Structures are given as C-alpha cells and as structure tokens.
C-alpha cells in the first residue's frame, strides 16, 4: 500500500486540537448548584452526555478516515522483465594433493574455494558450472542458475575424491565439453591449478584448440607463492608432514592456453592477489542486463471515504433526532 499524497497526513494534527477544544468546552459548561438538601430531586441518569461523547468520537474517526482517503491510498502490483546477453562460466579447479600447500591461508584449495564462492555470489544472472580435476577430471556441477546448489556442491569438494595427479588438459577438456552446446553469447572457462600437467590423455594445448573452435575463452590462474612453500609430503609411516619445497607452475603452458582462446593468464601468490584476480575477471566478463519495470496501481480510497461518510451521516442523524429527544 502506498499513498499518492502522504503529506496530507499532517492534517491529522487537527484531531488532538479538536479533542482538546471539546474537553475545554465541556468543562466550561459544567456548573455547580448548592442546595440545602437534594432529597427532593428526582434520581434519574441521562444518557445524553454519554451519547454526545460517543458521537464526537465517531466524528473524529470520520475525520481521520477522510484525511486518509484524501491521501489517496493505492495498492500496486509490479513486474520486471530482464533481458541479458548471458554468460556461461565453468570453473575448472585443481584439487590435487599439492593444493594442501600452506602458502595460502589456510591452504590453496580452501582459499580458492572461498574466493570462487564470492565470485559466484556476484554473478546472479549467469549460468555457472564446476569441474574438478586431479589425476582425472569430472563435472561436480553442470551449468546452472541455481547458485545455492552450486555452492553446496562446492562445499562437498575434498582431497582424495580423485586419484592424485594434475590432469590439467583433461580438466579443461571437461569444462569445454560442458560449454560446447551452450547458446550463450559469451562462454568462459576459469582454470585454476598449482602445478604441471602430468596426468590424463589430453594435452592442455589440444584442449585449448578445442576451446578456440567452440568460441570459448579461457582464463588461467597459477596458484603458488614465488620460491618455496610448505608442501604436504608423505613419510615412510604414511603420515603427512609439510616441508619447504620449490614451487613450480607451468606458466608457459597456462599463458599459451589463455592467449590461444582470447583469455588471460594470472599468477596468484597469496590470498589477496587471488582475490584481485577474481575481481579482475569479474570486471572483464560483465553481464549486460536491460531491465524494464511495469507498475500498475489501483486506487483504494473508496472504502475510507465511504466509511467516513457513513460515520458523519450517522453522527448528524443522532444529533438531530435521538439527542434532541433523550432526557
């Protein structure tokens, strides 16, 4: 409910003034007569004062309803038509054992997952899917606009889901396969890894050629600090310990994959730089939205005006009939 002339509600201030005037008038009318004895007076109680007060109260309500009607209450219904160029995005994420490295807080995978979820949160009109890879690759979530489902499937990612390794080419090829039949005007893969392709049957550059054929742009992100990082290492007893190990990312291949498909390569060395990379990609791949809003309003002052009129007529009739005859 909205009011076309809500400034008229200031007129309601007249009601307490009228009430104060009415009370003052009643006090002045009261008179006191002193008798030596009141035994000779008839013991009768008149309804006239009570009814007069009730009529005054109805008049005040009527004035309030009339002012509300003058403010023109309206009920509104609206609809929104959204047209978008549409972007389909697949996130291809490395979940190999080296993503446990603690050069990111708390580790590479957790940092990448958290920032990817922030990225998804800002892409409300886009279809987004998720591919994970280690020694092989599979689709964790197909393209969807139901981002709540996507977020839940993101949370289900854990180490050991797939045989260890880094099948970068297979991860990219799987992501491309999810997009090859897409009708979106823009198709994007964001490939995140921290190593070198050492598994799978598809070389990364071959997957890049397939992506180029289907008009799919690939942004690649290399995750890992410069120099050495605390990497997980299995001891003879099977325990996992962290030792400072040289970080090596195949930046040459990642750069070639990105350039061949019209994308860009980024290097993330800590949480903050990774966050900036996601923000940069978000700016580069903006969804263009046109919004048309339709609003229809219906006048709702009739009931208020009718109720006010009824109360005023009732008050007038009572004052000129009943109140004149009651003793």
UniProtKB/TrEMBL annotation:
UniProtKB keywords: Cell membrane, Membrane, Transmembrane, Transmembrane helix
N-terminal signal peptide: none
Keyword Transmembrane helix: yes
CDD domains: vWA_BatA_type
SMART domains hit by this protein: VWA
Domain of life: Bacteria
UniProt keyword Plastid present: no
Xref: PROSITE patterns: VWFA
Annotated TM spans: 7-24, 50-71, 301-318
Organism this protein belongs to: Salibacter halophilus
Residue ranges constituting the VWFA domain according to the UniProt record: 88-281
The name this protein goes by in its record: VWA domain-containing protein
